[in-house]
Amino acid sequence: MTSSLSAQTDRFVHDRLPPPDQWPKLVYSLPELNIPEQANLVDALFTKAFNHGHADRPMLRSDKITLSYAETLERVNRIAQVLTEDFKLMPGNRVLLRGGNSIGMALSWLGVVQAGLVAVATMPLLRAKELGEIVDKAQPTVAICDATLLDELEQAQAAHPVLGAILKFNALGDPQDLGALCAAKSGQFTPCPTAADDIAMMAFTSGTTGKPKAAVHTHRDVLAACEAWPRHVLKARADDIVMGSPPLAFTFGLGGMLVFPMWAGASVYYPSTGYTPEAMVKLINQVGATICYTAPTFYRQMAAFAKQHGIPSLRLCVSAGESLPDATRQLWKGATGLEIIDGIGATEMFHIFISSTPEDVRRGAIGKPVPGYTAKVVDEQGQELPRGSVGKLAVMGPTGCKYLDDARQRNYVKDGWNYPGDAFTQDADGYFFYQARDDDMIITSGYNVAGPEVEDALLKHPAVAECGVVGLANEERGMIVKAFVVLKPDYSGDAAMVKALQDHVKATLAPFKYPRQIEFLAKLPRTETGKLQRFKLRSS
Protein backbone atom coordinates (compact mmCIF):
# COMPACT_ATOMS: atom_id res chain seq x y z
CA MET A 1 0.00 0.00 0.00
CA THR A 2 2.86 2.39 0.78
CA SER A 3 3.76 4.54 -2.23
CA SER A 4 6.72 6.85 -2.72
CA LEU A 5 4.14 9.37 -3.93
CA SER A 6 2.16 9.24 -0.68
CA ALA A 7 1.42 12.62 0.84
CA GLN A 8 -0.17 11.21 3.99
CA THR A 9 2.35 11.74 6.77
CA ASP A 10 -0.12 10.34 9.31
CA ARG A 11 0.04 6.59 8.61
CA PHE A 12 -2.64 5.59 11.15
CA VAL A 13 -5.02 4.10 8.56
CA HIS A 14 -2.32 2.75 6.24
CA ASP A 15 -0.76 0.87 9.17
CA ARG A 16 -4.07 -0.75 10.14
CA LEU A 17 -5.01 -2.13 6.75
CA PRO A 18 -5.16 -5.92 6.34
CA PRO A 19 -1.91 -7.77 5.62
CA PRO A 20 -1.23 -8.18 1.88
CA ASP A 21 -2.26 -11.85 1.82
CA GLN A 22 -5.79 -10.84 2.90
CA TRP A 23 -6.22 -8.16 0.25
CA PRO A 24 -8.72 -8.42 -2.57
CA LYS A 25 -7.25 -8.74 -6.03
CA LEU A 26 -7.91 -5.38 -7.70
CA VAL A 27 -8.40 -5.63 -11.45
CA TYR A 28 -8.29 -2.67 -13.85
CA SER A 29 -9.55 -4.37 -17.00
CA LEU A 30 -10.76 -1.31 -18.91
CA PRO A 31 -8.65 1.64 -20.15
CA GLU A 32 -10.73 4.14 -18.17
CA LEU A 33 -9.89 2.30 -14.92
CA ASN A 34 -6.20 3.16 -15.22
CA ILE A 35 -6.05 6.01 -12.69
CA PRO A 36 -2.82 8.09 -12.54
CA GLU A 37 -0.50 7.09 -9.69
CA GLN A 38 -0.85 10.56 -8.23
CA ALA A 39 -4.49 11.59 -7.88
CA ASN A 40 -6.66 13.55 -5.47
CA LEU A 41 -10.27 12.46 -5.86
CA VAL A 42 -11.86 15.87 -5.27
CA ASP A 43 -9.32 17.73 -7.39
CA ALA A 44 -9.85 15.20 -10.21
CA LEU A 45 -13.64 15.65 -10.13
CA PHE A 46 -13.46 19.45 -10.19
CA THR A 47 -10.78 19.40 -12.90
CA LYS A 48 -12.95 17.12 -15.06
CA ALA A 49 -15.95 19.42 -14.60
CA PHE A 50 -13.96 22.55 -15.44
CA ASN A 51 -12.31 20.92 -18.47
CA HIS A 52 -15.79 20.14 -19.83
CA GLY A 53 -16.90 23.75 -19.42
CA HIS A 54 -19.08 23.19 -16.33
CA ALA A 55 -17.54 25.85 -14.04
CA ASP A 56 -20.67 28.02 -14.15
CA ARG A 57 -23.18 25.16 -14.22
CA PRO A 58 -25.19 24.43 -11.05
CA MET A 59 -23.67 21.80 -8.76
CA LEU A 60 -25.32 21.99 -5.33
CA ARG A 61 -28.94 23.07 -4.96
CA SER A 62 -31.39 23.67 -2.12
CA ASP A 63 -34.49 25.76 -1.61
CA LYS A 64 -32.25 28.55 -0.26
CA ILE A 65 -29.19 28.60 -2.52
CA THR A 66 -27.69 27.18 -5.70
CA LEU A 67 -23.91 26.94 -6.04
CA SER A 68 -22.09 26.55 -9.33
CA TYR A 69 -19.07 24.28 -9.66
CA ALA A 70 -16.77 27.32 -9.34
CA GLU A 71 -18.61 28.64 -6.28
CA THR A 72 -18.58 25.19 -4.72
CA LEU A 73 -14.84 24.82 -5.25
CA GLU A 74 -14.15 28.15 -3.56
CA ARG A 75 -16.12 27.05 -0.48
CA VAL A 76 -14.43 23.64 -0.47
CA ASN A 77 -11.03 25.37 -0.56
CA ARG A 78 -11.98 27.58 2.39
CA ILE A 79 -12.90 24.51 4.46
CA ALA A 80 -9.59 22.88 3.53
CA GLN A 81 -7.80 26.07 4.62
CA VAL A 82 -9.55 26.10 8.00
CA LEU A 83 -8.64 22.47 8.67
CA THR A 84 -5.01 22.76 7.64
CA GLU A 85 -4.21 26.34 8.69
CA ASP A 86 -6.30 26.89 11.84
CA PHE A 87 -6.34 23.33 13.17
CA LYS A 88 -2.96 22.24 11.76
CA LEU A 89 -4.33 18.94 10.45
CA MET A 90 -1.85 16.89 8.45
CA PRO A 91 -2.56 14.60 5.48
CA GLY A 92 -3.86 11.28 6.76
CA ASN A 93 -5.53 12.74 9.88
CA ARG A 94 -9.15 11.66 10.24
CA VAL A 95 -12.09 14.09 10.39
CA LEU A 96 -15.47 12.86 11.63
CA LEU A 97 -18.47 14.25 9.74
CA ARG A 98 -21.99 14.32 11.16
CA GLY A 99 -24.96 15.61 9.21
CA GLY A 100 -27.86 14.75 6.98
CA ASN A 101 -27.98 15.38 3.24
CA SER A 102 -27.26 19.08 2.89
CA ILE A 103 -25.00 21.48 1.06
CA GLY A 104 -23.05 21.95 4.30
CA MET A 105 -22.39 18.23 4.64
CA ALA A 106 -21.38 17.91 0.98
CA LEU A 107 -18.98 20.87 1.18
CA SER A 108 -17.43 19.50 4.37
CA TRP A 109 -16.81 16.05 2.90
CA LEU A 110 -15.21 17.54 -0.20
CA GLY A 111 -13.07 19.93 1.85
CA VAL A 112 -11.74 17.13 4.02
CA VAL A 113 -10.71 14.95 1.07
CA GLN A 114 -9.33 17.92 -0.93
CA ALA A 115 -6.95 18.53 1.99
CA GLY A 116 -5.64 14.96 1.94
CA LEU A 117 -7.45 14.12 5.17
CA VAL A 118 -9.58 11.02 5.71
CA ALA A 119 -13.35 11.58 5.75
CA VAL A 120 -15.24 9.55 8.37
CA ALA A 121 -18.91 10.26 7.72
CA THR A 122 -21.48 9.09 10.28
CA MET A 123 -25.22 8.51 10.10
CA PRO A 124 -27.32 11.36 11.58
CA LEU A 125 -29.33 9.04 13.85
CA LEU A 126 -26.35 7.53 15.66
CA ARG A 127 -26.30 7.96 19.43
CA ALA A 128 -23.39 8.97 21.67
CA LYS A 129 -22.43 5.36 22.40
CA GLU A 130 -22.26 4.49 18.70
CA LEU A 131 -20.40 7.70 17.84
CA GLY A 132 -17.95 6.93 20.64
CA GLU A 133 -17.22 3.52 19.14
CA ILE A 134 -16.43 5.20 15.81
CA VAL A 135 -14.18 7.75 17.52
CA ASP A 136 -12.35 4.90 19.25
CA LYS A 137 -11.83 3.11 15.95
CA ALA A 138 -10.96 6.09 13.72
CA GLN A 139 -9.25 8.39 16.25
CA PRO A 140 -10.35 11.70 14.70
CA THR A 141 -9.15 14.85 16.46
CA VAL A 142 -11.61 17.17 14.68
CA ALA A 143 -15.28 16.75 13.79
CA ILE A 144 -17.56 18.80 11.55
CA CYS A 145 -21.19 18.61 12.66
CA ASP A 146 -24.54 20.03 11.65
CA ALA A 147 -25.43 22.43 14.46
CA THR A 148 -28.79 20.69 14.95
CA LEU A 149 -27.08 17.35 15.67
CA LEU A 150 -24.56 18.42 18.31
CA ASP A 151 -25.94 16.86 21.49
CA GLU A 152 -25.01 13.23 20.90
CA LEU A 153 -21.61 14.12 19.46
CA GLU A 154 -20.77 16.35 22.42
CA GLN A 155 -21.67 13.49 24.75
CA ALA A 156 -19.35 11.22 22.78
CA GLN A 157 -16.62 13.86 22.89
CA ALA A 158 -16.86 14.09 26.68
CA ALA A 159 -16.19 10.36 26.95
CA HIS A 160 -13.56 10.28 24.19
CA PRO A 161 -11.24 13.30 24.59
CA VAL A 162 -9.16 12.35 21.54
CA LEU A 163 -11.88 14.27 19.66
CA GLY A 164 -10.56 17.70 20.51
CA ALA A 165 -12.61 20.14 18.42
CA ILE A 166 -16.08 20.17 16.93
CA LEU A 167 -16.73 22.62 14.10
CA LYS A 168 -20.37 23.41 13.45
CA PHE A 169 -22.00 24.39 10.21
CA ASN A 170 -25.02 26.69 10.21
CA ALA A 171 -24.26 27.72 13.82
CA LEU A 172 -24.63 31.47 13.43
CA GLY A 173 -22.79 33.54 16.01
CA ASP A 174 -20.86 30.57 17.39
CA PRO A 175 -17.05 30.96 17.44
CA GLN A 176 -16.76 27.40 16.15
CA ASP A 177 -19.13 28.04 13.23
CA LEU A 178 -17.39 26.69 10.15
CA GLY A 179 -18.99 29.35 7.96
CA ALA A 180 -17.59 32.18 10.06
CA LEU A 181 -14.14 30.60 10.10
CA CYS A 182 -14.26 30.11 6.34
CA ALA A 183 -15.22 33.74 5.75
CA ALA A 184 -11.74 34.80 6.86
CA LYS A 185 -10.05 32.59 4.26
CA SER A 186 -9.02 33.41 0.70
CA GLY A 187 -10.59 30.45 -1.07
CA GLN A 188 -7.21 29.74 -2.69
CA PHE A 189 -5.90 26.26 -1.82
CA THR A 190 -3.61 23.84 -3.57
CA PRO A 191 -5.17 20.36 -3.39
CA CYS A 192 -3.10 17.91 -1.40
CA PRO A 193 -0.94 15.96 -3.91
CA THR A 194 -2.09 12.57 -2.68
CA ALA A 195 -1.04 9.31 -4.22
CA ALA A 196 -3.95 7.46 -5.81
CA ASP A 197 -3.47 4.80 -3.13
CA ASP A 198 -3.65 7.26 -0.24
CA ILE A 199 -6.76 6.96 1.90
CA ALA A 200 -9.75 9.16 1.03
CA MET A 201 -12.41 7.82 3.38
CA MET A 202 -13.56 5.31 5.94
CA ALA A 203 -17.14 4.07 5.64
CA PHE A 204 -18.80 2.38 8.58
CA THR A 205 -21.22 -0.34 7.57
CA SER A 206 -24.88 0.40 8.18
CA GLY A 207 -25.15 -2.39 10.68
CA THR A 208 -27.81 -4.87 9.51
CA THR A 209 -25.94 -7.42 11.64
CA GLY A 210 -25.62 -5.07 14.59
CA LYS A 211 -21.79 -5.12 14.34
CA PRO A 212 -20.57 -2.21 12.17
CA LYS A 213 -17.16 -2.41 10.49
CA ALA A 214 -14.97 0.30 8.95
CA ALA A 215 -14.32 -0.14 5.22
CA VAL A 216 -11.40 1.88 3.84
CA HIS A 217 -11.33 3.39 0.34
CA THR A 218 -8.53 5.14 -1.48
CA HIS A 219 -8.70 8.00 -3.96
CA ARG A 220 -8.12 5.38 -6.69
CA ASP A 221 -11.03 3.25 -5.46
CA VAL A 222 -13.59 6.03 -5.72
CA LEU A 223 -12.31 7.34 -9.05
CA ALA A 224 -12.39 3.80 -10.47
CA ALA A 225 -15.94 3.38 -9.18
CA CYS A 226 -16.88 6.53 -11.13
CA GLU A 227 -15.65 4.86 -14.31
CA ALA A 228 -17.68 1.68 -13.77
CA TRP A 229 -21.41 1.80 -12.93
CA PRO A 230 -21.97 5.57 -13.57
CA ARG A 231 -20.26 5.42 -16.97
CA HIS A 232 -21.68 2.15 -18.26
CA VAL A 233 -25.10 1.79 -16.60
CA LEU A 234 -26.42 5.09 -15.18
CA LYS A 235 -25.09 7.31 -17.99
CA ALA A 236 -26.01 10.58 -16.26
CA ARG A 237 -25.74 13.84 -18.19
CA ALA A 238 -24.58 17.33 -17.27
CA ASP A 239 -28.17 18.62 -17.42
CA ASP A 240 -29.41 16.05 -14.88
CA ILE A 241 -30.76 17.11 -11.49
CA VAL A 242 -30.37 14.37 -8.88
CA MET A 243 -32.55 13.81 -5.82
CA GLY A 244 -32.87 10.98 -3.36
CA SER A 245 -32.97 9.68 0.18
CA PRO A 246 -29.74 7.67 0.76
CA PRO A 247 -27.56 9.46 3.34
CA LEU A 248 -24.19 10.87 2.30
CA ALA A 249 -22.73 8.89 5.20
CA PHE A 250 -23.67 5.69 3.33
CA THR A 251 -21.59 4.86 0.24
CA PHE A 252 -24.74 4.35 -1.85
CA GLY A 253 -25.69 7.93 -0.99
CA LEU A 254 -22.18 9.36 -1.25
CA GLY A 255 -21.84 8.00 -4.76
CA GLY A 256 -25.35 8.73 -5.96
CA MET A 257 -25.89 12.04 -4.20
CA LEU A 258 -22.47 13.68 -4.61
CA VAL A 259 -19.53 11.94 -6.28
CA PHE A 260 -21.27 10.49 -9.35
CA PRO A 261 -23.19 13.68 -10.20
CA MET A 262 -19.86 15.57 -10.01
CA TRP A 263 -18.28 13.04 -12.36
CA ALA A 264 -21.08 13.76 -14.88
CA GLY A 265 -21.09 17.53 -14.38
CA ALA A 266 -24.67 17.28 -13.06
CA SER A 267 -26.27 18.87 -9.99
CA VAL A 268 -27.81 17.58 -6.76
CA TYR A 269 -30.79 18.93 -4.85
CA TYR A 270 -30.78 18.61 -1.05
CA PRO A 271 -34.11 19.37 0.68
CA SER A 272 -34.33 21.38 3.89
CA THR A 273 -36.59 18.81 5.52
CA GLY A 274 -36.94 15.06 5.40
CA TYR A 275 -38.88 13.19 2.76
CA THR A 276 -42.26 11.55 2.87
CA PRO A 277 -43.31 9.55 -0.21
CA GLU A 278 -45.80 12.20 -1.31
CA ALA A 279 -43.41 15.07 -0.55
CA MET A 280 -40.69 13.44 -2.62
CA VAL A 281 -42.97 13.12 -5.64
CA LYS A 282 -44.09 16.74 -5.32
CA LEU A 283 -40.50 17.94 -4.87
CA ILE A 284 -39.27 15.98 -7.89
CA ASN A 285 -41.89 17.85 -9.92
CA GLN A 286 -41.13 21.20 -8.30
CA VAL A 287 -37.37 20.91 -8.82
CA GLY A 288 -37.56 19.15 -12.18
CA ALA A 289 -35.41 16.27 -10.93
CA THR A 290 -34.38 13.77 -13.58
CA ILE A 291 -32.65 11.07 -11.46
CA CYS A 292 -33.95 9.60 -8.20
CA TYR A 293 -32.16 7.31 -5.75
CA THR A 294 -34.11 5.60 -3.00
CA ALA A 295 -34.87 2.23 -1.43
CA PRO A 296 -37.47 -0.27 -2.71
CA THR A 297 -39.84 0.44 0.18
CA PHE A 298 -39.95 4.12 -0.75
CA TYR A 299 -40.64 3.41 -4.43
CA ARG A 300 -43.53 1.21 -3.35
CA GLN A 301 -44.94 3.98 -1.15
CA MET A 302 -44.35 6.67 -3.80
CA ALA A 303 -46.11 4.80 -6.59
CA ALA A 304 -49.66 5.95 -5.81
CA PHE A 305 -48.57 9.59 -5.54
CA ALA A 306 -46.53 9.37 -8.74
CA LYS A 307 -49.62 8.06 -10.52
CA GLN A 308 -51.79 10.80 -8.98
CA HIS A 309 -49.51 13.78 -9.59
CA GLY A 310 -47.47 12.58 -12.58
CA ILE A 311 -43.71 12.75 -12.60
CA PRO A 312 -42.78 13.96 -16.11
CA SER A 313 -39.23 15.21 -15.51
CA LEU A 314 -37.95 11.94 -14.05
CA ARG A 315 -36.00 9.75 -16.48
CA LEU A 316 -33.87 7.44 -14.26
CA CYS A 317 -34.77 5.68 -11.01
CA VAL A 318 -32.15 3.77 -9.04
CA SER A 319 -32.81 1.24 -6.29
CA ALA A 320 -30.19 -0.39 -4.09
CA GLY A 321 -29.47 -1.04 -0.44
CA GLU A 322 -31.81 -4.01 -0.18
CA SER A 323 -33.58 -6.50 -2.44
CA LEU A 324 -36.00 -4.98 -4.97
CA PRO A 325 -39.09 -7.20 -5.14
CA ASP A 326 -40.43 -7.64 -8.65
CA ALA A 327 -43.86 -6.67 -7.31
CA THR A 328 -42.45 -3.25 -6.39
CA ARG A 329 -40.68 -2.87 -9.74
CA GLN A 330 -43.92 -3.59 -11.64
CA LEU A 331 -46.00 -1.35 -9.36
CA TRP A 332 -43.64 1.57 -10.03
CA LYS A 333 -43.48 0.86 -13.75
CA GLY A 334 -47.27 0.72 -13.92
CA ALA A 335 -47.53 4.09 -12.14
CA THR A 336 -44.78 5.93 -14.04
CA GLY A 337 -43.81 3.95 -17.13
CA LEU A 338 -40.23 3.94 -15.80
CA GLU A 339 -38.07 0.86 -15.32
CA ILE A 340 -36.18 0.91 -12.03
CA ILE A 341 -32.42 0.42 -12.33
CA ASP A 342 -31.71 -2.23 -9.73
CA GLY A 343 -28.25 -2.86 -8.40
CA ILE A 344 -26.32 -4.66 -5.75
CA GLY A 345 -23.31 -3.02 -4.18
CA ALA A 346 -21.60 -3.00 -0.83
CA THR A 347 -19.98 -0.52 1.52
CA GLU A 348 -16.89 -2.70 1.23
CA MET A 349 -16.87 -2.36 -2.59
CA PHE A 350 -17.95 1.32 -2.47
CA HIS A 351 -20.90 1.03 -4.85
CA ILE A 352 -22.87 -1.06 -7.36
CA PHE A 353 -21.14 -3.96 -9.13
CA ILE A 354 -24.13 -5.88 -10.59
CA SER A 355 -26.88 -3.98 -12.42
CA SER A 356 -28.65 -3.48 -15.76
CA THR A 357 -29.57 -0.49 -17.88
CA PRO A 358 -33.36 0.07 -18.17
CA GLU A 359 -33.41 -1.45 -21.65
CA ASP A 360 -31.60 -4.61 -20.51
CA VAL A 361 -33.73 -5.41 -17.46
CA ARG A 362 -34.84 -9.01 -17.02
CA ARG A 363 -37.75 -9.59 -14.65
CA GLY A 364 -36.66 -10.94 -11.30
CA ALA A 365 -32.95 -10.38 -12.00
CA ILE A 366 -30.68 -7.68 -10.60
CA GLY A 367 -28.63 -7.72 -13.77
CA LYS A 368 -25.16 -8.60 -15.02
CA PRO A 369 -21.72 -7.62 -13.71
CA VAL A 370 -20.99 -3.95 -14.33
CA PRO A 371 -18.18 -3.51 -16.88
CA GLY A 372 -14.92 -3.72 -14.96
CA TYR A 373 -16.26 -6.35 -12.54
CA THR A 374 -16.45 -10.13 -12.68
CA ALA A 375 -18.87 -12.18 -10.60
CA LYS A 376 -19.63 -15.86 -10.11
CA VAL A 377 -21.78 -18.15 -7.95
CA VAL A 378 -19.65 -20.57 -5.96
CA ASP A 379 -19.88 -23.36 -3.40
CA GLU A 380 -18.38 -23.42 0.11
CA GLN A 381 -14.94 -24.23 -1.38
CA GLY A 382 -15.05 -21.32 -3.84
CA GLN A 383 -15.68 -23.52 -6.88
CA GLU A 384 -18.04 -22.07 -9.50
CA LEU A 385 -21.41 -23.83 -9.57
CA PRO A 386 -23.45 -24.81 -12.64
CA ARG A 387 -25.84 -22.11 -13.89
CA GLY A 388 -29.13 -22.19 -12.01
CA SER A 389 -27.57 -23.41 -8.75
CA VAL A 390 -27.93 -21.43 -5.52
CA GLY A 391 -24.58 -20.47 -4.04
CA LYS A 392 -22.43 -17.68 -2.64
CA LEU A 393 -21.72 -14.58 -4.70
CA ALA A 394 -18.02 -13.84 -5.34
CA VAL A 395 -16.96 -10.57 -6.98
CA MET A 396 -13.71 -9.09 -8.29
CA GLY A 397 -13.01 -5.73 -9.90
CA PRO A 398 -11.37 -2.31 -9.44
CA THR A 399 -12.66 -1.96 -5.86
CA GLY A 400 -12.57 -4.40 -2.98
CA CYS A 401 -12.86 -4.88 0.75
CA LYS A 402 -10.19 -3.45 3.03
CA TYR A 403 -11.40 -3.35 6.63
CA LEU A 404 -9.63 -1.24 9.20
CA ASP A 405 -8.04 -3.53 11.78
CA ASP A 406 -10.78 -6.17 11.72
CA ALA A 407 -10.47 -9.96 11.88
CA ARG A 408 -13.59 -10.25 9.71
CA GLN A 409 -11.46 -9.37 6.68
CA ARG A 410 -10.74 -13.10 6.29
CA ASN A 411 -14.47 -13.81 5.93
CA TYR A 412 -14.95 -11.19 3.23
CA VAL A 413 -11.90 -11.77 1.01
CA LYS A 414 -10.82 -15.27 -0.02
CA ASP A 415 -8.22 -15.98 -2.70
CA GLY A 416 -8.55 -12.39 -3.92
CA TRP A 417 -12.33 -12.59 -4.38
CA ASN A 418 -14.83 -10.49 -2.40
CA TYR A 419 -17.69 -12.35 -0.73
CA PRO A 420 -20.43 -9.81 0.06
CA GLY A 421 -22.46 -12.45 1.95
CA ASP A 422 -25.27 -12.96 -0.56
CA ALA A 423 -26.85 -16.08 -2.03
CA PHE A 424 -27.47 -15.88 -5.79
CA THR A 425 -28.23 -17.88 -8.87
CA GLN A 426 -27.04 -17.05 -12.39
CA ASP A 427 -28.98 -18.00 -15.52
CA ALA A 428 -27.64 -19.20 -18.86
CA ASP A 429 -27.54 -15.63 -20.22
CA GLY A 430 -25.42 -14.35 -17.35
CA TYR A 431 -28.13 -12.56 -15.36
CA PHE A 432 -27.79 -12.74 -11.57
CA PHE A 433 -30.85 -13.42 -9.40
CA TYR A 434 -30.71 -12.48 -5.74
CA GLN A 435 -31.93 -15.13 -3.31
CA ALA A 436 -31.10 -13.87 0.18
CA ARG A 437 -28.29 -12.93 2.47
CA ASP A 438 -26.23 -16.04 3.18
CA ASP A 439 -27.58 -16.15 6.71
CA ASP A 440 -31.16 -15.49 5.56
CA MET A 441 -31.60 -18.74 3.63
CA ILE A 442 -34.25 -20.80 5.37
CA ILE A 443 -33.85 -24.59 5.33
CA THR A 444 -37.13 -26.18 6.30
CA SER A 445 -37.67 -29.95 6.16
CA GLY A 446 -34.72 -30.15 3.75
CA TYR A 447 -36.04 -27.49 1.37
CA ASN A 448 -34.24 -24.20 0.71
CA VAL A 449 -36.47 -21.14 0.95
CA ALA A 450 -35.26 -17.60 0.18
CA GLY A 451 -36.93 -15.05 2.44
CA PRO A 452 -37.09 -12.31 -0.25
CA GLU A 453 -38.99 -14.66 -2.56
CA VAL A 454 -41.72 -15.13 0.06
CA GLU A 455 -41.72 -11.38 0.72
CA ASP A 456 -42.28 -10.70 -2.97
CA ALA A 457 -45.24 -13.07 -2.99
CA LEU A 458 -46.78 -11.45 0.09
CA LEU A 459 -46.35 -7.97 -1.39
CA LYS A 460 -48.56 -9.00 -4.29
CA HIS A 461 -51.50 -9.34 -1.85
CA PRO A 462 -53.59 -6.15 -1.79
CA ALA A 463 -53.60 -5.99 2.03
CA VAL A 464 -49.83 -5.97 2.49
CA ALA A 465 -47.91 -2.71 2.77
CA GLU A 466 -44.55 -4.14 3.92
CA CYS A 467 -43.22 -7.45 5.12
CA GLY A 468 -40.12 -9.26 6.30
CA VAL A 469 -39.56 -13.02 6.26
CA VAL A 470 -37.11 -14.99 8.41
CA GLY A 471 -36.48 -18.55 9.49
CA LEU A 472 -37.14 -19.62 13.06
CA ALA A 473 -35.69 -22.70 14.72
CA ASN A 474 -38.18 -25.57 14.91
CA GLU A 475 -37.63 -29.00 16.43
CA GLU A 476 -39.73 -30.87 13.88
CA ARG A 477 -38.67 -29.09 10.64
CA GLY A 478 -35.31 -27.61 11.57
CA MET A 479 -36.65 -24.18 10.66
CA ILE A 480 -40.02 -22.73 9.76
CA VAL A 481 -40.85 -19.71 7.64
CA LYS A 482 -42.20 -16.76 9.64
CA ALA A 483 -43.51 -13.53 8.14
CA PHE A 484 -43.79 -10.15 9.84
CA VAL A 485 -46.41 -8.10 8.02
CA VAL A 486 -47.43 -4.44 8.05
CA LEU A 487 -50.96 -4.17 6.70
CA LYS A 488 -52.41 -1.30 4.73
CA PRO A 489 -55.04 0.84 6.46
CA ASP A 490 -58.51 -0.68 6.79
CA TYR A 491 -57.21 -4.27 6.98
CA SER A 492 -57.28 -6.26 10.21
CA GLY A 493 -54.52 -8.56 11.43
CA ASP A 494 -56.77 -11.37 12.56
CA ALA A 495 -56.87 -15.14 12.04
CA ALA A 496 -58.78 -14.74 8.80
CA MET A 497 -56.05 -12.49 7.41
CA VAL A 498 -53.36 -14.99 8.47
CA LYS A 499 -55.13 -17.73 6.51
CA ALA A 500 -55.74 -15.45 3.52
CA LEU A 501 -52.05 -14.56 3.30
CA GLN A 502 -50.94 -18.17 3.75
CA ASP A 503 -53.30 -19.32 1.01
CA HIS A 504 -52.09 -16.51 -1.23
CA VAL A 505 -48.45 -17.62 -0.87
CA LYS A 506 -49.37 -21.28 -1.43
CA ALA A 507 -51.09 -20.26 -4.67
CA THR A 508 -48.11 -18.17 -5.77
CA LEU A 509 -45.13 -20.33 -4.76
CA ALA A 510 -44.42 -23.98 -3.99
CA PRO A 511 -46.60 -24.77 -0.96
CA PHE A 512 -43.65 -25.66 1.32
CA LYS A 513 -42.56 -21.99 1.11
CA TYR A 514 -45.64 -20.55 2.80
CA PRO A 515 -45.17 -18.81 6.18
CA ARG A 516 -46.35 -21.12 8.96
CA GLN A 517 -46.35 -18.17 11.33
CA ILE A 518 -47.45 -14.62 10.57
CA GLU A 519 -47.09 -11.73 13.01
CA PHE A 520 -48.57 -8.31 12.32
CA LEU A 521 -46.51 -5.21 13.18
CA ALA A 522 -47.09 -1.47 12.98
CA LYS A 523 -43.68 -1.05 11.32
CA LEU A 524 -40.58 -3.05 10.46
CA PRO A 525 -37.14 -2.45 11.97
CA ARG A 526 -34.90 -0.77 9.40
CA THR A 527 -31.52 0.90 9.33
CA GLU A 528 -31.24 4.59 8.55
CA THR A 529 -30.54 3.63 4.93
CA GLY A 530 -33.78 1.66 4.66
CA LYS A 531 -32.38 -1.84 4.96
CA LEU A 532 -34.57 -4.36 6.73
CA GLN A 533 -32.90 -5.58 9.94
CA ARG A 534 -33.82 -9.24 9.79
CA PHE A 535 -31.61 -10.04 12.76
CA LYS A 536 -34.01 -8.00 14.90
CA LEU A 537 -36.97 -9.94 13.52
CA ARG A 538 -35.22 -13.23 14.30
CA SER A 539 -34.58 -12.15 17.88
CA SER A 540 -38.06 -10.73 18.51
Overview of the structural elements:
By secondary structure, the protein is an alpha/beta fold. It folds into three domains: 1-38 and 218-436, ANL, N-terminal domain (Rossmann fold); 40-193, 3-Layer(aba) Sandwich (Rossmann fold); 445-538, ANL, C-terminal domain (GMP Synthetase, Chain A, domain 3). It has a nine-stranded mixed sheet, sandwiched between helices. Helix 1 (41-51) packs parallel to helix 9 (251-264), helix 2 crosses helix 3 (103-114) and helix 4 (128-138) packs across helix 5. The longest helix has 18 residues, at 69-86. It is globular, with a radius of gyration of 23 Å. The mean pLDDT is 93.
Short description:
The protein is of the alpha/beta class and 540 residues long. It is 30% helix and 23% strand.
Mean pLDDT: 93
Q: CATH topology of the largest domain, which one?
A: Rossmann fold
Q: Which sequence of strands runs across the widest sheet?
A: 2-1-10-9-11-12-13-14-15
What composes the largest sheet?
Answer: 9 strands, mixed
Percentage of β-strand residues: 15-25%
As a whole number of angstroms, the C-alpha radius of gyration is 23 Å
